[in-house]
Amino acid sequence: MQFTRLRLNGFKSFVDQTDLSIHPGLTGVVGPNGCGKSNLLEALRWVMGENRASAMRGSGMDDVIFAGTDSRSARHYAEVTLQVDNSNRLAPAAFNDADTLDIVRRITRDAGSVYRINGKEVRARDVQMLFADASTGAHSPALVRQGQISELISAKPKARRRILEEAAGISGLYARRHDAELR
Ligand code: ATP
Ligand code: MG
């Protein structure tokens, strides 16, 4: 699944709308300390359905909303759009008639998140499942946080096994089995 564009609006330090084109191959993001490199990766994780504030380095989910500076007032919402190429038709049937998918997550202060895929409102679960089989997703082992390598080395065997299962692409099956057992 090829990501083609990431758009941020009011997300953490990205107060003004920022568009990043993502081309095939390697993309590097460079910049001084504190310029927002990690925030970009968190935006990617967040739009794919991350629900742990700790993974966003915050204490609550509203902490992803631009909090204001001396010269700019705080925003009341944050929105991230991830555009993916679906020309190989990997998306689930419900969204699989389009060449590109725009996945949007918007959070409004004190009112939680709303997700849309190509304009249609969907559940967080739909977005999480869209990415769960594509070796991407909010919990993908492909997203490596700062400091995560040293955590991995000292991880307990069970936690390490979960990471290996995700890397092997079978965690989507577990999520679906869990869903089936709840029904
Ligand atoms: P390093 O090279 O040190 O890893 P980085 O480029 O990864 O730095 P980030 O951690 O992405 O930098 O960005 C940190 C900046 O984002 C800080 O200046 C912090 O104040 C700002 N920031 C984080 N959350 C918010 C928010 N909700 N509102 C405004 N600014 C925020
Ligand atoms: Mg960083």
Automatic annotation (TrEMBL):
It is found in: Cytoplasm. ATP binds at residues 32-39. It comes from the Bacteria. Required for chromosome condensation and partitioning. Homodimer. Contains large globular domains required for ATP hydrolysis at each terminus and a third globular domain forming a flexible hinge near the middle of the molecule. These domains are separated by coiled-coil structures. Belongs to the SMC family. This is Chromosome partition protein Smc. It comes from Roseibaca calidilacus.
